[in-house]
Amino acid sequence: MNEHQRLADVSPDRIFAAARRVVARCDELARATATPGAGIERVYLSPEHARVNRLVAEWMREIGMATHQDAAGNQVGRILPFYGDPEAPALLLGSHLDTVPNAGRFDGIAGVLMALEVVRLLRAPAGSGRPARVPLPFALEVIAFSDEEGTRFGKALLGSAASAGGWHDEWWGLTDESGVTLREAFLDFGLDPGRIGEAAYRPDQLVGYLEAHIEQGPELDARGESLAVVSSIASARRFQITIEGEARHAGGTPYETRRDALLGASEAALAVERICRAEHHIIGTVGQLETFPGAVNVVPGEARLSLDLRGEFDDSRDKVWDAIARDLDAIMGRRGLRWRAREIHSAPAVFCAPLLQDVVRAGIMATLPAGVDAPATLFSRAGHDGMSIADITDVGMLFMRNPGGISHHPDEFVSVNDVAAGIWAFAEAVLHLAGEHH
Length: 438
Ligand code: GLV
Ligand code: MN
Ligand code: MN
Description:
Elements: H1 3-8, H2 12-30, H3 47-62, E1 66-69, E2 75-79, E3 90-96, H4 109-122, E4 139-145, H5 158-163, H6 182-189, E5 206-214, H7 219-223, E6 227-233, E7 235-244, E8 248-249, H8 261-277, E9 282-285, E10 289-292, E11 298-299, E12 302-311, H9 314-335, E13 338-347, E14 350-351, H10 354-367, E15 376-380, H11 386-389, E16 395-400, H12 416-437
Helix pairs in contact: 2-4, 2-12, 4-12, 8-9, 10-12
The structure holds glyoxylic acid (GLV) and manganese (II) ion (MN) (2 copies).
C-alpha cells in the first residue's frame, strides 16, 4: 500500500480547517484557568485540570475514540486499527495540558489538539453500526498528560512518569504551597492513590510515542523555517537551595557582624549565571527566591532559592552542578552562612529514536516543496513528557516555529500556518511509521 498517496488526497483546506480548530481550541482551553483575567494557570489535580480533561474527552469521542481518564489523571483516547484486535499495540501521540503560572496557550496544549487532528485526518469514517477505525497496522492513542511542568508539587513529569510505570512512593508526601500533599490532592480529585500502577503502559502495548510541540526557543524563527526534527531532550535537575544566616535588627547590626542570607543567595544566583554561561549547552536558572522572616527592617536570616539546571548531556550538566556547589561553599564560607540543597527533580537526557527521527523528517519533507533541503534538527532545551515515556518505548518529536522564542509567557505564539504544516507533517510521519511496520 502506498501510505503517502493517501494523505496527498487530503485537501489543503481540510488541513487548514484542522489548524484553525487547534488554535480555536487552544483559546477555549485557555479559559480553564485558576487566574481569570491574568495569564493562564492550570496545575495538576485542580478543578481546571478536571475541566480540560472533560472537554478533551468530548473532542476525543467526537472523532470516534474510546476514552478514559487514567489513574494519574491523564486523559486518554484510543482508536483501533482496521484489522487489529482490541489489544493491538498503539502508537501513542500526545503532550500535556497543565501549565506554568502566567502561561501561554500553546505549550503542550497545541500538541494534544494536533494529535486529535491527526486521528481525524487518518481515520476512516465509521460504517453503519461500526466504530471508526484507522487504516493503520497499529492502534492510535492520544494522551493528554496531566503534569509536565511540575508547577504545583515541584516535581515535574508526574503524569508521564505514571504512564511509564516510574512512580515513586516518596512522591506522595510532596506538598503544594498550601501544604496539601500529593496523596490528598489525588483523593480530592477523585483518584485512588492505591491504583496508580494501573496508569502504567507495558512496553509491548506501545509502538512508540510521537509528540508535536512549539520550539520554546528562537532557532526556527531565526532560520525562517516552520518545522524541525528533535534529536534529543535536554537532561534536567532541579534543586531547592536553603541558605541560613542570622536574622538581626536592620538598624543596629553592623555590616561586619551580619550574616545576611539574601546577599549569599544573590551571589549564588550570579555564580549560577557565570558558571553556566561559560559552558556550551548548559543553562541554569534561579526562578524562585524567598527570604525569611521577609520584613523590611530585618536582615534576612534565611533565603530559599530554586535552581533549574539543564544540559544536552548528563555528565556535563553534573560537572556544572559540582562547580556551582564548590562556588556556593566558597561564597557561604566567606559570608559566614550555611547552605544545603535538596534535589527535587532529575531526568536524564533522552535521545529520540533514530527511526522516529527519520519518520518525523520524512513527514516534514512531505510538506516542503521538492528540492528543499532537509529540515533543521534541533535538541530540545525544554523538558517534555517523552523524557519519562522513553523508559518504556521509542520517542520522537516534531517542533514548530515559536516566534521570538517566547514561551512560558502569555505572549507565546504559533501561527495557524505553522500548525497546519505541523499537522500535515505529523500525519505523514505516522503514515511513514506504518509503512515501516509492513
Ligand atoms: C517545561 O516546559 C520545562 O522545560 O521546564
Ligand atoms: Mn512548559
Ligand atoms: Mn511543554
